């Protein structure tokens, strides 16, 4: 097991070739490090003493070359050392994370996510700095130390002996200080984990904190942990710098003795000046490898403490075998027999006691009972979420606890009341279970990933189609989209105008090349379209020379900059003396982050000939602000009628000069923009703009905007929902619906699915389980967040399409759904009090009857 491997087992068994190559490289650098010392001696004793200039130059060049080559080898060695450390850490982290995923579910009840995150990231990252040089550093440092020492003995044995006197003192003192530092490191790791847990808990429980206004309470808790960490780190640094202080003292004691004794020997003529210079250099270099040895010892102790703490945190065996020895996974019919099953947490909390139950293939079984009765525990034990120690659960005569996880995953689908939704798209989450089966089974029997047709079918079964259709309608149409939606969308525009003209008049503003768009930005009105080239984006186009020259040619550049100044001034005046908040800027072309800059522009500008003059960057900012201005939404100033006329004229010029199209191709027949079939299709994905022409897709615009061929007038959710409803009604009569739903599968659900409602998450989790086509489907209050209509749809799915095919075990909270189940099992206090058909139990007037009456 990975947690039982000592730290050095990774170092000795992995990347051996790389470590040997690194060792050879570092040994070569050691030899080159001694050469400059010899050249120093020869420069002084031979070249300078003899006055030999050519020899002096030669020795100096060789001295420099030796330094450069040694430095280069050291550089390459350092990079290689860190690379080895990173690769070893990557392997440890990956192996450990895989192990963590297999730990028993009960482990995670007692371990906060922050502990796991900190251990696998920060704590292992600190270990990586040691791993790369774990073998090379001590060997090369020791050899370097011995090499320099041998050279010093060669120069003057007596002085070399004096130099060695100080090292035993360090060997005795440093380990004692390091032992204390190790103890502090253990405490620091513990406190950091507690802080991580508290931060994670506070973020996860932010609703409760806001609801109870417990900001100070949580801040005080965190401050106490933070103060504890500060105290530990302070003590650590006191010891750390104490070690450095001692190192410095010992380092400078050597030169003291050398100058005293070596100087005396040189005065007496028993030691040449060149030899003394070389000896001093050698002593200085001698301390470098010694310091590396001390640092290595300290780093090893720190890394070993961290490594052992991390591994101890996860040193538990998985409850179940992960994968069987021989693919493919077993397939079961779904007959389940529970005998004498008991389950406890610890020695005092008994959740189930002597449970017996039989379920035949294809039966629908409901588990009911009051809160704490053990129904969810029973469901999770059958789903192999926990390991039981007493009793038996058999599926098709095989003991459940003996089956591996791959067999269980292939046969059992489990949906919890609060299912986890992974970051990514709806498609990613739907395919998750099938992708997991495919990863676990590399044989030819592995299931293929579901097709789009399969996904759409299961989405329809669980009632998620309308939700995904809505996501699809609001998905932006990418230039490289391959759904062939152009012709259907253009046809939908025509049908919408013909069949729902009056219904949408008050909801949208249609695109009309001859009318100013009150709910479009000034930039949108000029280009009459959307930019596809980022260089023409609304926040960058103010610096685009082609666009700026066009504005000058149309005589509107100065007016737009002035308009931007008016918007900025009006905003600054409105917020004078008030703390700006993000809510205010929802109806302003300026963002909260930009407010300070625009306030500076308004307050600091020059005036020439009665007109304000700005710096170039400020002028760009004002132009950008004006280009964002939407008259229908931004009410701080009114758009002058004359400027509006100039903008319409500029639109025609822009289409002709930059778009290279005749404005007439963007004309629509009728007041509401019926498609002009005589117009040609002009938009291309590779073009810099997608123009609002009735025969074309508007790339980067939402699909619903493409269909209604206009902009929604209101941001009110009710009016947006009304518009969606009109389009929905139209789409249900068209074949294009599936293509749009397919695009909705690409909707990003956000972190943990936070962009989905609780009901949508449950439907998605149910669809994910159904896509495995399991023999047994376990639902642990899996429809609790659904409305009555959605629950009824799921119930019909179970009764009509799953009965006699799939064994269903459902923990039920709505008792009115019980008549649709073949068997009802009632639990109280962890025991089954009665079981049978719904009619039998009601006629008996026992526990189920009492439960229904109490509701």
Description:
- It is a multi-pass membrane protein.
- Residues 336-854 form the ABC transporter domain.
- Its main location: membrane.
- GO terms for molecular function: ABC-type transporter activity; ATP binding; ATP hydrolysis activity; ATPase-coupled lipid transmembrane transporter activity.
- By secondary structure, the chain is of the alpha/beta class.
- Among the domains are: 1-145, ABC transporter transmembrane region fold (Up-down Bundle); 336-419 and 776-785 and 797-854, P-loop containing nucleotide triphosphate hydrolases (Rossmann fold, 3-Layer(aba) Sandwich), CATH 3.40.50.300; 522-660, no CATH class.
- Helices cover 58% and strands 9% of the residues.
- The chain is built from 32 helices and 16 strands.
- The protein has a six-stranded mixed beta sheet, sandwiched between helices. A four-stranded antiparallel beta sheet has the order 2-1-4-5, with helices on one face.
- Helix 5 packs antiparallel against helix 8 (167-204), helix 6 runs antiparallel to helix 11 and helix 16 (452-461) crosses helix 29.
């Amino acid at each position: 097991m990975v947690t039982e491997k000592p730290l050095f087992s990774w170092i000795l068994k992995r990347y051996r070739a790389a470590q040997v190559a690194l060792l050879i490289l570092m040994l070569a650098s050691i030899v080159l490090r001694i050469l400059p010392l010899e050249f120093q001696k020869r420069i002084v004793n031979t070249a300078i003493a003899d006055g030999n200039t050519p020899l002096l130059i030669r020795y100096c060049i060789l001295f420099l070359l030796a330094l450069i080559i040694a430095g280069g080898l050291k550089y390459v060695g350092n990079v290689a050392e860190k690379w080895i450390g990173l690769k070893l850490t990557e392997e440890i982290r990956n192996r450990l994370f895989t192990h963590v995923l297999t730990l028993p579910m009960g482990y995670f009840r007692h371990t906060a996510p922050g502990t796991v995150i900190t251990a696998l990231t920060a704590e292992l990252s600190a270990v990586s700095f040691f791993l790369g040089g774990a073998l090379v550093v001590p060997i090369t440092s020791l050899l370097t130390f011995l090499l320099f020492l041998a050279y010093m003995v060669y120069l003057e044995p007596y002085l070399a002996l004096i130099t060695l006197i100080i090292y035993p003192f360090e060997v005795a003192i440093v380990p004692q200080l390091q032992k204390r530092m190790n103890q502090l490191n253990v405490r620091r790791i513990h406190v950091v984990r507690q802080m991580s847990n508290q931060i994670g808990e506070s973020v996860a429980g932010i609703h409760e904190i806001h609801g109870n206004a417990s900001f100070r309470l949580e801040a005080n808790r965190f401050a106490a942990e933070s103060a504890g960490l500060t105290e530990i780190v302070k003590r650590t640094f006191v010891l750390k710098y104490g070690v450095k202080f001692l190192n410095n003292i010992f380092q400078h004691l050597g030169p003291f003795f050398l100058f005293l004794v070596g100087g005396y020997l040189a005065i007496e003529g028993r030691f040449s000046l060149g030899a003394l210079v070389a000896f001093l250099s050698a002593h200085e270099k001698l301390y470098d490898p010694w310091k590396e040895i001390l640092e290595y010892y300290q780093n090893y102790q720190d890394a070993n403490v961290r490594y052992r703490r991390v591994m101890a945190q996860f040193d538990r065996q998985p409850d179940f075998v992960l994968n069987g020895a021989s693919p493919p996974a077993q397939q079961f019919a779904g007959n389940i027999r529970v005998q004498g099953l008991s389950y406890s947490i610890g020695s005092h909390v008994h959740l189930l006691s002597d449970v017996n139950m039989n379920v035949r293939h294809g039966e629908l079984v409901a588990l009911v009972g009051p809160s704490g009765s053990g129904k969810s525990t029973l469901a999770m034990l059958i789903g192999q979420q926990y390991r039981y120690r007493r009793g038996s659960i058999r599926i098709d005569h095989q003991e459940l606890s003996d089956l591996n996880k791959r067999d269980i995953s292939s046969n059992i689908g489990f949906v919890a009341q609060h299912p986890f939704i992974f970051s990514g798209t709806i498609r990613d989450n739907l395919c998750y279970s099938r992708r997991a089966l495919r990863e676990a089974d590399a044989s030819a029997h592995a299931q293929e990933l579901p097709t789009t047709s399969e996904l759409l079918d299961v989405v329809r079964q669980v009632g998620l189609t309308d939700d995904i259709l809505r996501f699809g309608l609001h998905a932006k149409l990418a230039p490289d989209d391959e759904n062939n939606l152009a012709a259907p969308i253009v046809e939908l525009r025509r049908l919408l105008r013909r069949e729902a003209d009056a219904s949408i008049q008050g909801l949208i503003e249609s695109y009309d090349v001859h009318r100013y768009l009150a709910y479009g930005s000034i930039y949108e009105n000029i280009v009459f379209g959307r930019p596809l080239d980022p260089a023409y984006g609304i926040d960058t186009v103010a610096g685009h020379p082609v666009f700026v020259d066009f504005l000058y040619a149309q005589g509107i550049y100065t007016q737009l900059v002035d308009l931007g100044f008016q918007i900025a001034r009006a905003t600054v005046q409105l917020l004078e003396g008030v703390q700006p908040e993000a809510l205010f800027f929802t109806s302003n072309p300026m963002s909260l982050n930009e407010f300070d800059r625009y306030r500076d522009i308004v307050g600091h500008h020059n005036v020439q000939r009665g007109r304000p003059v700005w710096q170039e960057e400020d002028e760009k900012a004002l132009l950008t602000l004006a280009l964002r201005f939407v008259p229908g939404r931004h009410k701080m100033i009114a758009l002058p009628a004359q400027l509006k006329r100039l903008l319409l004229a500029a639109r025609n010029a822009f289409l002709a000069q930059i778009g290279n199209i005749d404005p007439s191709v963007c004309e629509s027949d009728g007041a509401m923009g019926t498609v002009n079939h005589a117009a040609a299709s002009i938009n291309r994905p590779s073009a810099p703009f997608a123009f609002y022409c009735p025969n074309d897709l508007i790339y980067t615009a939402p699909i619903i905007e493409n269909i209604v061929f206009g902009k929604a007038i209101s941001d009110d959710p009710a009016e947006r929902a009304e518009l969606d409803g009109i389009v929905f009604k139209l789409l249900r009569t068209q074949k294009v619906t599936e293509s749009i739903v397919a695009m909705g599968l690409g909707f990003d659900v956000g972190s943990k699915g936070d962009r989905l409602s609780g009901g949508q998450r449950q439907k998605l989790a149910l669809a994910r389980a159904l896509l495995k086509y399991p023999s047994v489907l376990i639902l642990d209050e899996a429809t609790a967040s659904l409305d009555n209509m959605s629950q009824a749809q799921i119930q019909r799915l179970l009764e009509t399409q799953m009965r006699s095919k799939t064994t269903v075990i459902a923990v039920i909270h709505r008792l009115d759904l019980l008549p649709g189940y073949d068997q009802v099992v009632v639990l109280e206090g962890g025991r089954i009090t009665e079981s049978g058909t719904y009619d039998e139990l009601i006629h008996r007037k026992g526990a189920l009857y009492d439960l229904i009456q109490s509701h």
